[in-house]
């Protein structure tokens, strides 16, 4: 598994534009999944180009929830590549110009080793990737309680780590994880970094996390 952060509030490079929102490229075996699309299509596509990510090579788009800072770039992306499956939570509205739109209500397998938690608390779904170290959860904002997110994800295997926005979830809710990359809307980022210095990985555009 390889995760490249494309859209975030901070950046590792001066040529990559930061903005409020989140998007990441998740590469697993033979599939390239764009997780969320940030708030602004031109920023999304510009960062993709500078990171060497070709929109035409994306197989799937996974939308965590309907908030604009996670969906604002979707239309611009689909103008570059509409030949994709778009996985959205059950409460999400319509998506135009995609090859296939799949609404997800409950936890399910998408592909071998790739899962969705289904829509939790009527707002957000999470992408779960099986790796040799355990399950990695990719999060948009983590609006639900972290304990609930991890409990649902655990049906697919032992949870190793989480990457993405953690919203108001506090450091104690991450106890037991071995990888924590907090991005975007995380409110208690200083506390989390302080409590898990050996497990914490900085977020930001251009960050790449790889696990076998």
From TrEMBL:
InterPro entries: DHPS-like_MBL-fold (IPR041712), Metallo-B-lactamas (IPR001279), Metallo-beta-lactamase_dom (IPR052926), RibonucZ/Hydroxyglut_hydro (IPR036866). Transmembrane segments: none annotated. Residues 23-90 form the Metallo-beta-lactamase domain. CDD domains: DHPS-like_MBL-fold. GO terms for molecular function: transferase activity. Signal peptide: none annotated. This is 7,8-dihydropterin-6-yl-methyl-4-(Beta-D-ribofuranosyl)aminobenzene 5'-phosphate synthase. The lineage of its organism: Bacteria, Pseudomonadati, Balneolota, Balneolia, Balneolales.
């Amino acid at each position: 598994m390889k995760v490249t952060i494309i859209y975030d509030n901070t950046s590792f490079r001066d040529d990559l534009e930061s903005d409020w929102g989140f998007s990441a490229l998740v590469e697993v075996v033979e599939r390239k999944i764009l997780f969320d699309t940030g708030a602004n299509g031109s920023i999304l596509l510009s960062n993709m180009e500078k990171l060497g990510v070709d929109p035409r090579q994306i197989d799937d788009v996974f939308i965590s929830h309907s908030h604009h800072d996670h969906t604002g770039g979707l239309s611009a992306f689909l103008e570059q590549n509409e030949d994709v499956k778009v996985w959205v939570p059950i409460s999400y509205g319509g998506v135009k110009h995609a090859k296939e739109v799949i609404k997800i209500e409950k936890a399910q397998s998408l592909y071998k080793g790739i899962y969705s938690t289904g829509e939790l608390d009527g707002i957000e779904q999470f992408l779960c990737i099986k790796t040799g170290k355990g399950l990695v959860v990719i999060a948009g904002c983590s609006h639900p309680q972290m304990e609930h997110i991890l409990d649902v994800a655990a049906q697919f295997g032992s949870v190793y780590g989480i990457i993405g926005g953690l919203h108001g979830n506090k450091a104690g809710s991450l106890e037991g994880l071995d990888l924590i990359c907090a991005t975007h809307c995380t409110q208690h980022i200083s506390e989390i970094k302080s409590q898990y210095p050996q497990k914490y990985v900085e977020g930001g555009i251009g960050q790449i996390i790889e696990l076998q």
